[in-house]
Amino acid sequence: MITHSIFSLLTAATLAVAASLAAFAPPPLQTFGDDLAFLKTHTRVVLLADTRTGARVEGGQSFGWVNRALLAAHVADPRFNAYGGEDRFWLGPEGGQFGLYFAKGDPYDLAHWKVPAALDTEPYPVEAQAALRVSFTKRMAITNHAGTRFDLELHRTVRLLPAAEAA
Q1: Using one digit for the tens of pLDDT, what is the confidence trace for 124-153?
Q2: pTM above 0.90, yes or no
Q3: Alpha carbon of residue 54 to chain centroid
């Protein structure tokens, strides 16, 4: 009788723990195709593909992170928008006398921390595009906490590697 009661308690406890852990189960894995379909409904997408071989990366697991809730809301936060992806362009320092994320005279606290729009929400215009590569150019001005203005021009090229080169 005592053994049966202990077994019943352990079984009930195990089931309770399993049920609570199920609530924290990771979301199902997204494929690149899933992310692509979602992004196409919310933004302009540039998809690179090898037109000679027909190779495209769509069926495999997505290794990027897409903040689906933020993109679907279509509302920009005035301080920071973590859209996701592995391609974020970031400059530093964030804080301190030469920090880029605090306006001149503002205190160093979270309420005043703001990612410059050029690094956060402004688009990077496509300069050139082909099947295997796309190039962007962005002119921007960023002023640091000391009041120094930086005029920058960013050139970025993303290209699809041939399978042999990627290996």
Answers
A1: 899 999 989 999 999 999 999 999 999 999
A2: no
A3: 27
